[in-house]
Structure formats: structure tokens, C-alpha cells
# Entry
Amino acid sequence: MLSKHVLNCGFSQWYSLFADISIDSKSMKLSDDFIQYLLSDGIVLPKSGSDGNDDEIIEDHDWGDDNDHQNGFPRLPDGGGDDSDGQSSGAEAAAPEFPEMDAFMRSALDSLGAVFPKLNWSSCEDSSWMSATGTRCLTPDDVYLLLKSSDRIVHDLTQPFKDCTDETPPVEHELVLKKWVDMNPSMEFRCFVANNQLIGTAEL
# Structure
């Protein structure tokens, strides 16, 4: 397989040609700092994605050996407990901010209603279990959580040309928000088009 075949399957390569018969969608190029955020360890939702709620932080813990914790809980380091004012003195994970991405998401949600997020090629279906609404996103936080939890998204960002035999070209990664549509999975098909003609279909 050649890299051009992969590029031709990217959202922006075909959407403008078939927009009239495709689900309404909005897209935005990903900035380098947002890509680094998606590839970083742990899950810290951006501050701007919250609607006034406390920042949601989900982190992996290194439990260490049995001497590092008591009663099944990790032992706090010296001085890591609550101080005299009841405030935790432990280090907190800093919540990043992406105002342009946040504005794009809110605009798309206002325009499309609930959305289904994906990147150039892959969606976040593998992380749907992280959200009570699955892949149906109603807020920026919903989108951030699915993106940050998805191995498919990491694959899109790090090795989209894994099986290609030619030189790897540069890629402009983008976030795509598609209008949510309730679909029967048995009625989803992958379509193949050549020379503006539908030449085949296959069940997903």
C-alpha cells in the first residue's frame, strides 16, 4: 500500500466532494500543542472544556511495593497530607487550556447539536466505554475525554502509514465533529468510489 492511498481516505480529501450526501460535519486543524496533549500520559481534561465544573482528572497510579501503601491505599509522601487550613499541599496536575479548540467545539455543538468525534481517519469508538453517552458528545468535555482515552486516535497521530511501503509524507491532523445520527450498526457500509462512480460496498 502507498501513502497516497491512506491520504486519499482522510476526511478532508473526500468530504468536499460528497458533502451534499454526507452527514454534516465541521473540522479544524490540530495545533502542535494539542497533539502533544493527546499523546501525553494520563487524562487531564482541559480547563476550558468544563462548564464551570471542577476539573476532572483521571490518572494512572504507580502503586509501588507493599511498603508504599497501607490498607490498599497509596501512602502519602511526607508533608503530602492536608495542611492546617484543610488544603492539600500535594502537587496537582495542571489542566491545559486550548481556547481556539474550545471555541471550535462549542460552535460546532451549537450548530450541529450532539456530535461524533474523529480525526482524519479514525473515530473514538474504542473509548466509548469512558463516557455515559458513548460516542455521542454533548459538551467539549465529552469530546476531550474520548479523544484522550482512545488508542485509535494515538494510531492516527503516530503511525497512520504503518503498512505503507513508500516514504512517509507530512500530515495535517484535524479534528472532525460529525452531527450525531442514530444508526443501526447493521446498516453501516463502507463505500468505494473510483472516477466518480460507486464501484463497491462492504459491511463494516
Summary: The longest helix spans residues 99-112.
